[in-house]
Design goal:
The complex is a heterodimer of chains A (about 475) and B (about 250).
Chain A: H1 3-14, H2 16-37, H3 45-61, H4 63-76, E1 80-84, H5 87-100, E2 105-108, H6 112-116, H7 119-125, E3 129-132, H8 135-143, H9 159-170, H10 178-195, E4 198-201, E5 205-207, E6 212-217, H11 221-227, E7 231-237, E8 241-242, H12 248-260, E9 267-271, E10 285-291, H13 295-300, H14 315-319, H15 323-326, H16 337-348, H17 365-369, H18 376-393, H19 398-411, H20 414-427, H21 447-455, H22 465-477
Parallel strand pairs in A: 1-10, 2-3, 2-4, 4-7, 5-8, 7-10
Antiparallel strand pairs in A: 5-6, 6-9
Helix pairs in contact in A: 2-12, 3-12, 9-10, 16-18
Chain B: E1 13-16, H1 20-25, H2 27-39, E2 43-45, H3 55-60, H4 63-76, E3 82-85, H5 88-101, H6 106-115, E4 119-121, H7 122-129, E5 138-145, H8 149-154, H9 159-166, E6 169-173, H10 189-192, H11 194-211, E7 215-218, H12 221-234, E8 239-242, H13 243-248
Parallel strand pairs in B: 1-2, 1-3, 3-4, 5-6, 5-7, 7-8
Helix pairs in contact in B: 11-12
Classes of the chains: A alpha/beta (about 475), B alpha/beta (about 250).
């Protein structure tokens, strides 16, 4: 692997304050989830997961039909559907819409899909003022960072850091109490909501049979984003579809529980179409932008398409011992944690960050908690094999490949295997103790092996089992 | 009737797959396993041509190399009655991943399916085949059990080893906090990302320390090797034992 990511990972590991913050925050999320998915609290939890997976499987199998149904239903309710191949097309549409409607100020609720295509930056480059209205996302916007976690963008920030950011960027007196900080943000954001021309949201689900956009949140900012401005634009990946409104009964039970340990989030909005005659609120215009951005390519790979089942709950990251140490910013793309480890190579190509699928002990904690049962470890293994294939083609792994070929050659020849094990036994000796491997020639003892031995010992290879077994069998015969 | 005897009054035959790690570095674990099985009346064999299950290559993405070694494994154990291994991880490699590995090789695939029902992780074999919880062991010590990830999540082994430990005389079992968390070994993961792996095992030994246990027990020596290394560096007076070693103590 290239050294850059490793260097940054080392920095994160060495930052005691950050380590504590990540571990404590994810630990709370783990505990909250555990309580609400326990058999006493939700007896049919496992059946729900199975059902959710099957609905996603079915939807993606018939995605073309459901997308068309969704489009027709949105239109029937007075909304518009816009198809976008990538982030540039989403931005083009919004810029055009903004100019047409004389918009200057855009409020935005939290959306990983928008992060994925860098939507805020794209619109800011076109001289729109874009304001994030989710508290965590607002903090991140002020700090000029990217989200640390799929669900909790500012998971790594302590309240003292938030106080610092607010006082620096907003010119307010420093406040370290989260409640006061919320009040500060609220005062700023209220004005923005009232003045905004366009509200942009993502979508947690799109419902085909009623053309609805479903938003799940805790702060009420998404609800304001969709109702205060004249225009509401929801930007959503095409995989967000579910066939029927009743399917939400399955997904809503799982999403809040898996993400934050809430049986339901504080607000669940089901929005279809703009304000109708006689209605008192809602936007005048309602658009749903359906984004591909690589999804159809992932869809085509049948054995790996389940990456698209993800409902972005972040449970895999919370439970991942690697995420809990390296945090969200060491993953190359906006999707961090185990889901990011399979999504990034699938969406952005294998060669970009070939180390990514390998940064896992394959412990399986992610798959165990995934509400749609994505087999993340299986996909990691699959992607590892693909990385090796690509690197072999490019001749980038000659030493590693030679080592494994030699290893396979030895392991299929028991006599050679035993001879080598005898040789290792000679190399080791009692006085070398657990450090025996350090006696290897310098060349063999450099690099990865050296680092490995800094933290653990390989026991002295004395007599192998097979030698002892032979002796034992001989004794029994006597 | 001794448990290992079948109706023909011939002792049932068990073939040990000791795994390469036990063969090379932890032979006492293999011997302990053989001893426990013999005590239960089984005729224990060690097919000498055995080497490795192929997991290191498979987990690193070298599937062709993994297939070579897996084919060798299949041929060595083709006519075994029972195959018993002192490892959740290696057992899971064969039971859960060989089919994936040979998905485009029907001949090998049918071989895998023929072998799978005869393959057992050690604690599973004791409970489900031998049908025994108390093997007559004694160990006057406080122990904590470490769930190895592959045993726990791929083979569903959780209560079994604890039930076996509960029947060991004078042994006191104490659960550690966050016991289901990975120790950080992960095979080549610990070579490619030694610092992340080390950070994981530090949390593990802190959890172990809190139990005040004399020994950490597991069904995988790979985890125990990782944990022992960290215990040594932290200067903690805690030992590591494979479940078979505990059950062989009298």
């Amino acid at each position: 692997m290239t050294n850059q990511p490793l260097v940054r990972i080392r920095e994160t590991l060495g930052d005691a304050r950050l380590q504590e913050a990540i571990y404590a925050a994810t630990g709370r999320l783990i505990e909250h989830r555990r309580q609400v998915v326990a058999p006493e609290a939700l007896p049919d939890y496992q059946e729900l997961r199975e059902q959710a997976r099957r609905i996603k499987e079915h939807t993606l199998e018939n995605l073309d039909a459901y997308l068309e149904q969704f489009e027709a239903e949105v239109r029937a309710r007075g909304g518009e559907v816009v198809w976008a191949r990538d982030g540039a097309e989403v931005a083009d549409f919004l810029v055009e819409l903004g100019r047409r409607s004389g918009a200057r100020l855009i409020v935005k609720s939290k959306s990983m899909t928008a992060e994925e295509i860098g939507l805020r930056e794209r619109l800011e480059a076109q001289h729109f003022e874009v304001v994030e209205t989710d508290l965590g996302e607002y903090i991140i916007q002020l700090a000029h960072e990217r989200p640390y976690h799929i669900v909790a963008p500012a998971l790594h920030k302590t309240r003292y850091e938030v106080g610092e950011i607010f006082s620096q960027k907003l010119g307010v007196p420093r406040e370290n109490e989260p409640e006061r900080q919320t009040r500060i943000a609220r005062a700023v954001l209220r004005q923005k909501f009232l003045a905004a021309d366009i509200g942009i949201t993502g979508a947690n689900f799109l419902v085909a049979d009623c053309g609805a956009v479903v938003l799940v949140e805790n702060e009420g900012n998404a609800r304001l984003t969709t109702s205060a401005p004249r225009i509401h634009v929801a930007v959503a990946g095409i995989e967000k579809l579910v066939p029927r409104a009743q399917d939400l009964a399955v997904f809503l039970k799982l999403l809040g529980r898996s993400a934050t340990g809430q049986p339901l989030t504080v607000y669940t909005s089901i929005l279809s179409g703009p304000r109708r005659a006689g209605e008192r609120d809602g936007p005048e215009q309602f658009y749903v932008v359906l984004l591909d951005n690589g999804r159809t390519r992932v869809l085509a790979e049948r054995d790996k398409r389940e990456t698209l089942y993800c409902i972005r709950c972040g449970a895999c990251a919370n439970h991942c011992p690697v995420y809990r140490r390296i945090g969200g910013h060491n993953y190359p793309w906006v999707y961090s944690g185990p889901i990011g480890q399979i999504a990034s190579p699938q969406f952005q190509g294998l060669t970009q960050d070939p180390w990514l699928p390998f940064a896992s002990s394959l412990c399986g904690a992610c798959a165990e908690v995934c509400p749609v049962k994505i087999e993340i470890p299986r996909l990691l293994l699959e992607l590892r094999a693909e990385v090796v294939k690509a690197r072999t083609r490019e001749r980038q792994n000659r030493w590693e490949r030679a080592a494994f070929r030699l290893w396979a050659w030895v392991m299929t020849r028991p006599r050679v295997y035993e001879a080598l094990s005898l040789a290792a036994g000679l190399l080791a000796s009692e006085e070398a103790g657990p450090n025996w491997l350090r006696r290897l020639p310098a060349l063999l003892n450099a690099g990865p092996l050296r680092a490995w031995l800094d933290y653990r010992d390989l026991p002295l290879p004395g007599r192998s089992f097979r030698q002892l077994w032979r002796r034992r069998t001989a004794k029994v015969r006597e | 009737m001794p448990l290992g005897y079948n109706f023909s009054f011939m002792p049932a035959r068990v073939s040990l797959f000791v795994t390469c790690l036990v063969d090379q570095f932890f032979p006492r674990v293999g011997l302990a396993m053989a001893e426990v099985l013999e005590r239960l009346g089984y005729r224990v064999e060690f097919p000498e041509a055995q080497t490795c299950c192929g997991q290191p290559a498979f987990n690193t993405g070298y599937r062709e190399e993994a297939r070579c070694v897996a084919r060798h494994f299949l041929s060595v154990f083709a006519d075994a009655d029972y195959i018993v291994a002192p490892s959740g991880s290696c057992t899971s490699m064969i039971a859960c991943h060989y089919e994936e590995l040979f998905r485009r090789d029907p001949a090998a695939l049918s071989e895998v399916r023929r072998l799978k029902p005869r393959l057992w992780e050690f604690s599973q074999f004791l409970l489900q085949v031998a049908g025994v919880e108390d093997v007559g062991a004694r160990l006057p010590a406080v122990v904590t059990y470490h769930d190895s990830c592959h045993a726990l999540r791929e083979l569903g082994i959780r209560e079994g080893p604890r039930r076996l430990l509960a029947r060991v005389r004078e042994l006191q079992l104490r659960e550690m906090p966050a016991g289901a968390e990975c120790c950080g070994f992960g095979g080549t993961f610990s070579v490619k990302f030694p610092e992340i792996s080390a950070s994981m095992v530090r949390a593990k030994i802190e959890a172990i320390r809190q139990t005040g246990a004399d020994y950490v027990v597991s069904v995988d020596v790979s985890c125990l090797m990782q944990i022992q290394g960290a215990l040594n560096r932290a200067g903690l007076p805690v030992g590591t034992l494979h479940l078979a070693e505990v059950l062989a103590r009298q």
